[in-house]
């Protein structure tokens, strides 16, 4: 399976080095000045990421557990997006696409919505997308009305989101998510 993901091989070697038998045989830290295993792993991951051309992006954990980040499309004001590995596509909501003047084309397929309703899928290509100062040129974005999920977010006191950073984009940029540090590592 590693032959399908050759860029992950050094990361797996790092993981094995940090979690292998030698790491588990080390005595437990007894003072607060000693580094925890998590600190050692986080530091190692950050060094690995920098050495292999990754950029770190800070994530915020929402009350719902979702991972939130700010995304600027075409150098506009940063907007709230959820980082969602379960979403096949990166999505902007129609209101944001309209506000930014993003021209889109209808796709021949539709998406299934709540209650089995069919929702129109549209595709747009923005000039750029910037996340935490890391700029990405000409991202493809689906325009899809998923604003109903904002009702769920608002019900727990969260502000609405305007898009989703999906698995298509995460895969394209060889993303690694480190949940304990709330960081997303990507290759521009």
How would you describe this protein?
There is one protein chain. With about 190 residues, the chain is an alpha+beta fold. The chain contains six helices and 13 strands. Strands 2, 3, 4, 5, 6, 7, 8, 9, 10 and 11 form a ten-stranded mixed beta sheet that branches. It has a three-stranded antiparallel beta sheet with strand order 1-13-12, with helices on one face. α1 runs antiparallel to α3. Mean pLDDT is about 80; it is low at about 1-30.
Structural descriptors:
single chain, 188 residues, alpha+beta, ten-stranded mixed sheet, three-stranded antiparallel sheet, 6 helices, globular, disordered N terminus
Alpha plus pi helix count: 6
- Total strands: the figure is 13
End-to-end gap: 24 Å
* pLDDT averaged residue by residue: 81
Gyration radius from CA atoms, angstroms:
19 Å
Helices and strands, in N-to-C order?
HHHEEEEEHEEEEEHEHEE
Largest sheet entry:
10 strands, mixed
What proportion of the residues form beta strands (DSSP E)? 25-35%
Could you say which structural class the secondary elements and strand pairing correspond to? alpha+beta
Low-confidence stretches: 1-32
Specify the helix fraction band: 25-40%
Tell the overall outline. Answer: globular
């Amino acid at each position: 399976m590693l032959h399908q993901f050759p860029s992950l091989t050094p990361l797996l070697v790092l993981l094995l080095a940090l979690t292998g038998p030698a790491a588990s045989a080390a005595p437990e830290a007894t003072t607060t000045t000693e580094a925890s295993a998590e600190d050692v792993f986080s530091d190692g991951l950050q060094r690995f990421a920098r050495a292999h051309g990754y950029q770190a992006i800070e994530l915020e954990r929402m009350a719902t557990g979702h991972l939130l980040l700010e995304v600027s499309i075409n150098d506009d004001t940063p907007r709230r997006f959820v980082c969602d590995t379960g979403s096949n596509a990166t999505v902007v909501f129609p209101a944001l696409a309209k506000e930014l003047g993003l021209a889109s084309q209808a796709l021949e397929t539709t998406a299934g919505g709540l209650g089995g309703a069919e929702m129109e899928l549209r595709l747009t290509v923005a000039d750029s997308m910037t996340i935490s100062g890391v700029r990405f040129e000409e991202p493809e974005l689906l325009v899809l009305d998923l604003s109903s999920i904002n009702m769920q977010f608002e019900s727990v006191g969260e502000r609405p989101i305007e898009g989703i950073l999906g698995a298509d984009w995460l895969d394209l940029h060889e993303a690694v998510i480190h949940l304990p540090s709330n960081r997303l590592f990507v290759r521009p």
